[in-house]
Structures are given as structure tokens and as C-alpha cells.
TrEMBL record:
InterPro entries named among the record's database cross-references: transpos_IS91, Transposase_32, Zn_Tnp
Lineage: Bacteria, Pseudomonadati, Pseudomonadota, Alphaproteobacteria, Rhodobacterales
Name used for this protein in its record: Mobile element protein
GO MF assignments: DNA binding; transposase activity
GO terms for biological process, alphabetical: DNA transposition
Organism: Celeribacter marinus
Pfam family, one: Y2_Tnp
């Protein structure tokens, strides 16, 4: 993974040479690594994903619910990412599904999109789920749309307590099946009795589950998701400076209740890389998942049914733009004159382009 990011958009991956059709400007563009942890590659991936999700939005209120693990339990996840993160997805989704289906609450079958983040602003390990939920669901017989109260989804304290119970039960099941590994000063937790005793205090504390105010509308949901779905632990925009010994980056100190929370943190290069690598997910592990009405298998059918029940028409699909480039032109215009950039050569990794781009002229 690190080697892919290091090689991203360098000659190591090959690329193409583009030339302006109006002036003499040329430049070389190197290929992307397309690794899902690469800060440079996630922008295009997010745009493509959001374009596919736009047709799934409903004209209803949407809510944002966040489920967070206690720091001590999160520490176990560092050694058991696939097991613990998978349990975090399942327990949070089952929590919302169960409470929403309770006739005393909403009495509806809801759907949700969940996104896993594993970092805090300072690149510390902080696993949590961002869940986007439409404000309502289908009735038990599936023939009616049941909307939640305006501006209110579900009680967070009720969600928190069920989430705590489901997660702890799931954690014990993982331990009994031998799916957890322990290291360092927690090696003793491999014994069932010791693990049960260690978990006991967590059954009594409040687990952090909170709901943010509802979004302003489906468009706001789309804008929000575009920032969250393909985010990586740190973006290039947050990097302040870097050299062989130190990396400095901007972070937000949430302990400050008022005033400027923005600060600059300086870490040794080794420590910065260590913190970044904590957030690499296991191969094949999906960090975006859909549940309930939005589960992939029945999503389109369910969304069409909901639209029919609430009298909403499908969103209009924009016709393909006549300005869409051909495979041999670039979307970005010439930086010198604004003309169309034409690909005149492609080259593979390790190759040197035959038509080397001339250096850009310096302004007088």
C-alpha cells in the first residue's frame, strides 16, 4: 500500500503526454495508483460513487447518527480490524433497525448507509460509524410510508444502550469462537474469564452515540456524503510542511469548547507514518455499507416503492453533455490558452515518453 502511494502520479506508473490543439504547450501527466487509502486518488472515486447514489435519494428529511467505540475496546480493534470493524457495522445497523421497528418508537422498516472512519483529527485511532438515515420507513405490511417526527429521528440514549449490549454480546461471541487476538499487556485477555471480567465495566458506562441536526434536504445529503464516503485518514490539504525528519499537519482540538480549534501538530516522520498506517483496512473490507431498505439487493425496488407511496417522482437524469471529451482528450483545458488538450502519447511504467514535454515558460 505504501509503495503504491509513493509511486502515485510518478514516472513509476507510466502516464501520457498531452498537447494543446491551439498553442505549443505540452505536459506529462502520470497515472494514479487508485489505492483506496491514497489521498490523491479518492476525489475522482468519490465523484463517481456520488453520481451513482444521486438517483437513490428521497425527498424526505435525512439524519446523521454517529456510533463510537470506547477507547479501550478500540485498542483491541488494532489487532483485530476485520472482526471488530465488521461487528461495529453490524451492531450499529441492528441497533437502528431494531429501535425504528419498535411500535412504541416509529414502527417502520428503515434503511441506512454506513461509512467507517477509524481516525481522529490528530491521526489517533478512533473507530466510529457515520450513518445516514432517511427520516422514516415502510410500515410492517409495506403499504405505507411512516415518517418520523419532524426534526427528530430516535432517542440517542435508547440507541446507545442497545448498541452497547449488542456490541458486547458480539464481542463475547468473537472471543468464544477464537476470532480475537491479544498482544502486549492485554495478552491475558485470551482467557475467557479474564476477558469477561475486563468487559464488565463497559456494560455500565454510557457509550457515545449522537445524532446531528437533520440535513437541509437531499442535496445537502449528497454534498455531505461526497466529503465522507471516500475520505482517508489525512488529506493533502491538511499537510503543513514535511522534510526527512518531521511532518507538520493541521488538526482540530475538540477539547476546546469555544474559540479557534485549529492547531498545527508536528510529528517525527516515523511516527506520522505509523499513525497513518493504523488506518489501513484489511484487503477486501468494505468501508461503505447499506442496510435495510437501502441494502443493495432490493434498493432500487424499495426506493421506487417509497417514491410511489409519498407521491414523489424519480430525479431527472441529466442527459450526457455534448462537451464530454473523447477518450483522447482531457477535461482540463490548456493552462496557457484554455484550448483543448489532446493526448498525443501514452507510455507504460518504466518507459520514457518519446515526445518529452518542453519546460513551461516562466513569466517575465
Amino acid at each position: 500500500m505504501m509503495s503504491a502511494i509513493e509511486a502515485c502520479r510518478t514516472e513509476a506508473l507510466g502516464g501520457h503526454v498531452a498537447a494543446c490543439t491551439k498553442c505549443s504547450h505540452q505536459h506529462i501527466a502520470y497515472n494514479s495508483c487508485k489505492n483506496r487509502h491514497c489521498p490523491k486518488c479518492q476525489g475522482p472515486a468519490a465523484r463517481d460513487w456520488m453520481a451513482a447514489r444521486a438517483e437513490d435519494l428521497l425527498p424526505v428529511e435525512y439524519f446523521h447518527v454517529v456510533f463510537t467505540l470506547p477507547a479501550e475496546i478500540a485498542r483491541i480493534a488494532l489487532w483485530n480490524k476485520r472482526a471488530i470493524y465488521g461487528l461495529l457495522f453490524r451492531a450499529s445497523a441492528e441497533t437502528v433497525t431494531t429501535i425504528a421497528a419498535d411500535p412504541k418508537r416509529m414502527g417502520a422498516r428503515v434503511g441506512m448507509t454506513s461509512v467507517l472512519h477509524t481516525w481522529g483529527s490528530a491521526l489517533t485511532h478512533h473507530p466510529h460509524i457515520h450513518m445516514i438515515v432517511p427520516g422514516g420507513g415502510l410500515s410492517r405490511d409495506g403499504n405505507q410510508w411512516v415518517a418520523c417526527k419532524p426534526g427528530f429521528f430516535l432517542h440517542v440514549r435508547v440507541l446507545s444502550r442497545l448498541f452497547r449490549r449488542l456490541f458486547i454480546e458480539g464481542l463475547m461471541a468473537l472471543h468464544r469462537s477464537g476470532d480475537l487476538a491479544f498482544y502486549s499487556d492485554l495478552k491475558g485477555l485470551a482467557e475467557t474469564g479474564a476477558f469477561a471480567n475486563w468487559l464488565a465495566p463497559f456494560r455500565k458506562i454510557e457509550w457515545v452515540v449522537y445524532a446531528k441536526p437533520p440535513f437541509g434536504g437531499p442535496e445537502a445529503v449528497l454534498a455531505y456524503l461526497s466529503r465522507y464516503t471516500h475520505r482517508v485518514a489525512i488529506s493533502n490539504q491538511r499537510l503543513f510542511s514535511a522534510d526527512a525528519n518531521t511532518v507538520a499537519f493541521r488538526w482540530k482540538d475538540y477539547r476546546i469548547k469555544s474559540g479557534d480549534r485549529q492547531k498545527v501538530m508536528r510529528l517525527t516522520t516515523d511516527e506520522f507514518i505509523r499513525r497513518f498506517l493504523m488506518h489501513v483496512l484489511p484487503d477486501g473490507f468494505h468501508r461503505i455499507r447499506h442496510y435495510g431498505l437501502l441494502a443493495s439487493a432490493q434498493r432500487k425496488t424499495n426506493i421506487a416503492k417509497v417514491r410511489a407511496l409519498i407521491g414523489a417522482s424519480p430525479p431527472e437524469q441529466e442527459p450526457p453533455s455534448e462537451d464530454d471529451p473523447t477518450p483522447f482528450t482531457l477535461r482540463e483545458p490548456c493552462p496557457c490558452c484554455g484550448g483543448t488538450m489532446l493526448i498525443i502519447e501514452t507510455f507504460k511504467r518504466g518507459q520514457v515518453p518519446r515526445s518529452r514535454a518542453p519546460p513551461r515558460k516562466q513569466a517575465a
